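Chapter summary example: a protein plus magnesium ion.
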Amino acid sequence: MGSIANKNELKIIARELRLDILEATTKAESGHLSSSFSSVEILTALFFNGILRYRSDEPLWPERDRFIMSKGHAAPLLYAVLAKAGYFSRDELWRLRQAGSPVQGHPILGCMPGVEATTGSLGQGISLAIGHILGARLIKKDFSAYVLIGDGECQAGQIWESAMAAAHYQMQELIVILDYNKFQEMGPISREMGLEPLTEKWQSFGWYTQEVDGHDVQKISAALKTLQEVKEKPSILIAHTVKGKGISFVEKDFTWHGRAIKDPEQYEMAKKEILCG
Amino acid sequence: MRLGEHAGLKDSKPLRDIFGEALLDVVRDNPKVVVLDGDLGNSTKTELVRKAFPERSFNIGIAESNLVCIGAGMAGVGLIPWITSFSSFLLCNAYDQIRLSVAMSKINAKILGSHGGITLGKDGPTQMGIEDLALVGGFPTMVILVPCDPASMRAAVRAATDYEGPVWLRSSRYAMPEVYSQDLDFVIGKANTVREGNDLTIIANGLMVAAGLDAAAELADEGIEARVIDMHTLRPMDVEAIVSAAKETGAIVTAEEHLLHGGFGSNIARVVAENCPVPMRFVGLEDTYVESGDPDELLKKYHLTSGDIENMAREVLAEKRKAK
Ligand SMILES: Cc1ncc(C[n+]2csc(CCOP(=O)(O)OP(=O)(O)O)c2C)c(N)n1
Ligand SMILES: [Mg+2]
């Protein structure tokens, strides 16, 4: 169950998640470090500040809230969070992306406990969450679904198909969090394929929207609690983030997308910044 | 002559109507079954379920990617979703979604790919599924069922629902004649011999089973005894039935309402080549898109008739004799 930690503990959790992601991706010599770092505080709020209802010792607890990592390339973050939440041993993280390991490069349903969906082709997570909720309504279960999507991911048509459907079903049980780090793989979103006015787009699709500093765990948590109270509408938390947050040279250079830190000097520098950040 | 006439098969309703009735039966029997539609329930006949069980029917609209993933999500609470539309729209708009959220996830979802083949006729090639089974073949975890008549459609809907895992079911607008009596043995992965014979084997699926039986009746008049196999499951393939056919009859003709390229004939040929090479011929669609038209005219024009099977049978028999 998502226990409520104090402010300092939350900071430590976020720091440890970054260290684990760094180590796992460096060991794997690959993996989406910067995309993972940008969502660390979002998942810290969700899993470790009493928002998401889950039982790591009973991963398929029928009443659990669903968390679906739609931006599946942030798998290193998902695994680090699930390990910290007690779904499996932290040692599993060091088998990331290795042959014969269940810790697949992108999440696969059924490979690791706590993974709710197979993702890695962007755009599918909200639809899956809608299915869980429609099903829950039918079998009279009461849970919410949380979905993390990327901003580049919002270019996908299916995002808007699902946005339309969630509003149609007045899906108050659905909360999407948008990691708005302003970058996609090939560069700044505004240069590659602009999304603005983005908040207005979601509003015009019938969603309740709220914006937040995506690296402030307290503010994210408070915002999510507000969204839990929204009635007869799905809601989206647009979290303004920095891609690669916590490592200065990664923050400054979007070409780190999809790359791990392999250079030992850079690795030490990154570790120091995370520890002191 | 209508399909199945020479073989003495009884005429029936369009296969899609049978599907709708069969689906209604399983929805009635199993409270876990839900039906998802891509705004085609009147064509696929899931509208029968919608009328009787509106709360378990969901029209997701003209958004197949969303449709497939919503269905997959419903499996995540233990329901058994039947995700339904034309095969062309599902596979061409939501291949990625089926691949990740259904096949790779190995969830307990069923997909109806309606209007497979060319016999939807007049709506033309954009609606047809001439490549559907080749595409579904790309999902290694998925069972693929192609029923050939009313009884096997009913049995297939039930077997698919009872099976734990992803299943694809091909349906059709065409009225396929009754190959089976009501109480057939329908086991996933186990082909049915619908006519005994030892001179050659016709292995068919879908409406080509009736065409195969017509051809066998005609060949019998010439003193040739053809075995006819209904290979209703494309995956897993009944390797044993194929190998026995090769060994016992020494010649094989396959027949399918599908592109030959990537079709089931080529899969059968692989099994034959590996186990017991014998002369083979293939009835199916050459590399082309088929145009609008009356279904029976199209079947004739594109060489998917009992006559085409007979011609191939004579060729393959000549080759078999020469080899001896
Ligand atoms: C459908 C699809 N197309 C392309 C990709 C390759 N890809 C992986 S991550 C990525 C960029 C994603 O950008 P964004 O959603 O902004 O996520 P971020 O990494 O910035 O958090 C791309 C194009 C993919 N995974 N899925
Ligand atoms: Mg981004």
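Key point: The CA atoms of residues 32 and 258 of chain A lie 4 Å apart.
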